[in-house]
Batch of 2 targets.
Target 1
Amino acid sequence: KQEVTQIPAALSVPEGENLVLNCSFTDSAIYNLQWFRQDPGKGLTSLLLIQSSQREQTSGRLNASLDKSSGRSTLYIAASQPGDSATYLCAVKGNTPLVFGKGTRLSVIA
Amino acid sequence: NAGVMQNPRHLVRRRGQEARLRCSPMKGHSHVYWYRQLPEEGLKFMVYLQKENIIDESGMPKERFSAEFPKEGPSILRIQQVVRGDSAAYFCASSPNLDSSYEQYFGPGTRLTVT
């Protein structure tokens, strides 16, 4: 059974800092991994999708890496801004439907 | 091209009533997924439907919950005789086809409160 863990559960950083969010999964037989952003009381915004054959994806200040063999992904956020404050969710797609981690709650302090 | 639409956005029901949640997938998408997010918990898969077929309902409680995706119209998640533990955010996602490499696009969710 696939399990997804995100560390840390919460993170508070000063504006401008670079930061890394971690995601690990127990079954490496995945098709893809997605990173989402969720604002309080809102829906999910897809940030990056990494296919199993890819090592990383970049979008603006965001960079996500995938090491399928070790069951790990990281989301790197450069030059963080207060508007980045949200919960970041990692989800993996294997032979089962999407399995989500519980998220990392990020606060960027101005 | 509108995204995934869900309505209502907020729904309040008293214990014992029925809740009906609707999801209209993105245009051209024939696969719909329902997820539930309990307070302080991650999203959990409930059910996966294709037009007129339930493909996987392994995450859906056996009692009181049902889902459909008719040939015409939105997908419906129905919860009968709601209890306080059903209070949660229910999210719908859609994808264009069965290929597992395709991204799922999520709707804004329906927040159900049972009083």
Target 2
Amino acid sequence: GENVEQHPSTLSVQEGDSAVIKCTYSDSASNYFPWYKQELGKRPQLIIDIRSNVGEKKDQRIAVTLNKTAKHFSLHITETQPEDSAVYFCAASISRAALIFGKGTTLSVSS
Amino acid sequence: SAVISQKPSRDICQRGTSLTIQCQVDSQVTMMFWYRQQPGQSLTLIATANQGSEATYESGFVIDKFPISRPNLTFSTLTVSNMSPEDSSIYLCSVTRREGIPETQYFGPGTRLLVL
């Protein structure tokens, strides 16, 4: 079955710096890759997603890139702010639209 | 987006008992899923709740332990049976609108379960 690896597990940056989180997936049939942000005690919230027919997608300070050949995708957050501090999860879709999640990255942005 | 509610929001249960968690959506959706999030961990897919038929379980999860119902397109239940402390987790339902096509998944607020 699908397996998603996520790195790093923790990431600390200074406010205004960029943050990059990387994921790799195993199933070449996966074709949908969302990123979720989860704040403490809250549900996961979708922040950006990308489909396999697109190489890059951007939404203000957040961007995602996808390399289908290498089977990896990355989340880029620019100009980080303290409110970006949270746990970020990548995921890949298997059949039936169910998601397999990476283990998560705890991002800490210090001011 | 979809408005999703779960009941109960949290519970403390004794080992050996069972708890049924409800997931209600404000509009018809095609796909409904149940996930488990153990303390400090990622989300693990338990099963896909199929309307009118048996749920599809992921490896490591069985119907006897996690029976699931989905009587219509807006409601599903997950039962955690014969609970042990290892079942202490957050249980989340999620929904998408279009069957078989990758689509945004929306998560419910989760049910926090503590088993003593």
